Amino acid sequence: MKRLFPLLLLLSVALTPVAAQKLALKLDSTVLTKHEVTVKGKRIPYTATAGTQPVWDEKGKPVAGLFYTYYERSDVKDKANRPLVISFNGGPGSASVWMHIAYTGPRLLNIDKEGYPLQPYGIKENPHSILDVADIVYVNPVNTGLSRAVDTLKAEDVSKRFFGVNADIKYLAGWINTFVSRKKRWASPKYLIGESYGTTRVSGLALELQNAHWMYLNGVILVSPTELGIKREGPVAAANMLPYYAATAWHHKVLQSDLQQKDLTAMLPEVEEFTINELIPAITRGWSLGDQKRKEIAGKMAHYSGLSEEVILQQNLSVPPAFFWKELLRKEGYTIGRLDSRYIGIDKQEIGLQPDYAPELTSWLHSFTPAINLYIREELKYKTDIKYNMFGPVRPWDNSDDNTGDNLRQAMAQNPNLHLMVQSGYYDGACDYFNAKYNMWQMDPSGKMQDRMSFKGYRSGHMMYLRSEDLATSNEDIREFIRASLPKPGQPAQYTRKKADAGMPTGQTNR
């Protein structure tokens, strides 16, 4: 037995599972593969680079490695005129997976036409990818995807350096500088696209890249934007959700016939006008509004939201979103999704003030997680045992000094070539479409930059591109935005004095 013990010890060490061993990220690595995709009927060859690139500290020492995937069309020699799109998702702990394999990239995960999971899991060609008009890089911030800080950093140093609004913007701007230099893309027209918290990120990056790296952009695309540090408290915050409630109620066919028979985009302007002209002032007055007027306002809210006048009065005209998600279909035994209210869920009890879970997010994780893990390792050939974090540990997140909306405004003011497009789904209750419009109005209250701002609405939720019809339309909107924001040959970046036109920002369209 004594002779056998050393052998057993050796065997136990040899058989220790890989998961129990310490996994180190390669801070600087690349794997290149060649592919083709058919977009708008044309076969497009491209090179995919899956790899990591370091984040450097002030002394030039690597402190993290960010995983990225870069798609470069290989039959275009003139990179000076070839746009580059730099893509971020949100969270802030979310990987850059959602837009990567469901929106703008050359490959598309296997889902049905409305965005629900299908098996077998996998990837197919994306016939709507923007790769025909631009090269794209999908960047994963620290602790998302396969990106990690170096293991020699203390936890408090990692948090201070990476996990906050302004820290995030600062280190990612430096990373972009390195990437653009390595890929020889300084001459290229450049665009940032961000989704959800990614809109906070890219709004801040627009100014940081200009002021700290002297890198000037042609466009910023905000997909399902956050508040961007633009305050909306009290009556404004409470009232601004009503147009989203109306859109959701219309989708679930619970509105009265006079509204339900109208098209969605024909009905919403009426709700928006009521919100601005009547609801905000009514909530502002509080008890001084009087019982009769309060009941009148509650009746109109019930008409537009699908909720009962009774529960609206119980909430003093201020209906929390979580209550709406629980209440709208309560009598039918269902809840609705926060990020996409087309999705419905089932709670343990019908009673309660908020849903038990997010049915839309669980559905998305169901389809995206196996697809991205298969794609990176099998098709892009990037081999690693590190876990791909769909949502990584980045808490606590420092949200202080969030001035990103004003940062974007300042970047646009400084750069006459910089254009903005906002894309929102009408059924998104987390980053709703009406507050996305509100952002634009408050960013540029004078209207001097309205000809460089546009809004696009879609009949889906937070990730509007999951619906196949919106996938095609929203990608085409990006194509048109890129084409429209490229200056004509010889056109200088300068302002010319002209009389400002009154009215709403140009380019606003509803679908």
Automatic annotation (TrEMBL):
SUPFAM superfamilies: alpha/beta-Hydrolases. GO terms for biological process: proteolysis. Keywords: Carboxypeptidase, Glycoprotein, Hydrolase, Protease, Signal. One of its GO terms (molecular function) is serine-type carboxypeptidase activity. Pfam families: Peptidase_S10. The keyword Membrane does not apply. Residues 488-511 are annotated as: Disordered. Coiled coil: none annotated. InterPro entries: AB_hydrolase_fold (IPR029058), Peptidase_S10 (IPR001563). Residues 1-19 form the signal peptide. This is Peptidase S10 serine carboxypeptidase. It comes from Hymenobacter roseosalivarius DSM 11622.
